[in-house]
Design the sequence.
């Protein structure tokens, strides 16, 4: 058995597989390659069998989304290290070796993210992950190399180091940790489930790292476009679900109330910009959150680490202080 399984979740992405699967196969000799298919109807499975017969196929019986789709697929995968890779990722030479070496030398490191650059502008970081993620006190996610819509060029300014969350676009995790934590939360369906998983791993005392020596290139938004209100809905709802599960007990309700007020302001801003569909997506997110609130409370562990953030409010820093680059936040 090989040490690593590269697992690509696919749903009607035959064109992406045709474009990006060759780089994964060419540069991943150390790994077993899997495609986990969420009941595609575009001939994806037939295409893989015909053009990439060495790739192992896992068939999910319906479109379970990112979270449950991976959970079900990984029940069938026994390699010790999982590399969960989006279908719109181009990997580079030597992308695996630095990551695997880190796992080998650092037993407490449970999750790793490589450098994620923009496929269409390979000098710039990509929105979804950049050089590793963090959250502020109220659960707003940001990255080294990307804060809200401000994206930095890569000048190797971010070295290998610990981070708070790793991007699901290219997400390495030990099988033992993934299974101990129960995998992704299927209630999320898609978006921010990787932040939730990292937070749970952090609360259990695990280390999450960014490894700068490994680079991949991400198209971003290939399966759900950035301007889609469904993305707004999932991001707002899932952020509240994540906070409910993982915040320290003493600050749970205060932080949730402040976050919901901030969401209200964000919704009004969307409405004033004429983005009414996104405004209603925020309302829908909150309605769904209220329905799921008590079930999420039941998922809380007995102990949560209190120092989960480095910046109290990235919203304040970005919009009021005009600090748009990660290194200026501190």
Sequence:
């Amino acid at each position: 058995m090989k040490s690593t399984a590269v697992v690509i979740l696919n749903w009607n992405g035959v064109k992406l597989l045709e474009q990006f699967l060759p780089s994964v196969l060419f540069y991943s000799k150390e790994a077993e390659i899997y495609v986990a298919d969420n009941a595609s109807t575009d001939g994806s499975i037939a295409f893989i069998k015909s053009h990439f017969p060495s790739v192992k196929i896992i068939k999910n019986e319906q479109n379970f989304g990112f979270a449950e789709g991976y959970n079900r697929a990984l029940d069938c995968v026994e390699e010790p290290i999982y590399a969960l890779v989006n279908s719109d990722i181009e990997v580079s030479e030597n992308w695996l070796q630095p990551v695997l070496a880190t796992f080998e030398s650092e037993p407490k490191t449970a999750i790793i993210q490589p450098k994620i650059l923009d496929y269409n502008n390979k000098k710039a970081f990509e929105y979804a992950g950049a050089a590793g993620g963090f959250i502020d006190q109220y659960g707003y996610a940001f990255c080294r190399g990307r804060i809200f819509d401000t994206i930095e060029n890569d000048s190797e300014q971010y070295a290998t180091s610990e981070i708070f969350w790793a991007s699901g676009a290219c997400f390495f995790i030990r099988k033992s940790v993934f299974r101990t934590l129960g995998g992704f939360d299927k209630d999320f369906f898609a978006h921010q489930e990787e932040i939730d998983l990292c937070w749970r791993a952090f609360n259990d005392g695990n280390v999450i790292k960014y490894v700068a020596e490994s680079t991949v290139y991400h198209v971003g938004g290939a399966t759900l476009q950035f301007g889609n209100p469904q993305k707004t809905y999932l991001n707002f709802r899932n952020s509240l679900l994540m906070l409910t599960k993982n915040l320290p007990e003493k600050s749970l309700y205060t932080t949730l109330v402040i976050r919901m007020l901030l969401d209200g302001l964000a919704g009004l801003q969307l409405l004033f910009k004429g983005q009414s569909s996104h405004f209603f997506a925020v309302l829908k997110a909150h309605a769904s959150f209220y329905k799921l609130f008590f079930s999420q409370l039941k998922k809380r562990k007995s102990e949560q680490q209190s120092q989960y953030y480095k910046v109290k409010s990235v919203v304040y820093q970005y919009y009021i202080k005009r600090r748009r680059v990660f290194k200026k936040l501190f």
Residues 122 and 155 are 11 Å apart (CA to CA). The chain has a mean pLDDT of 95.
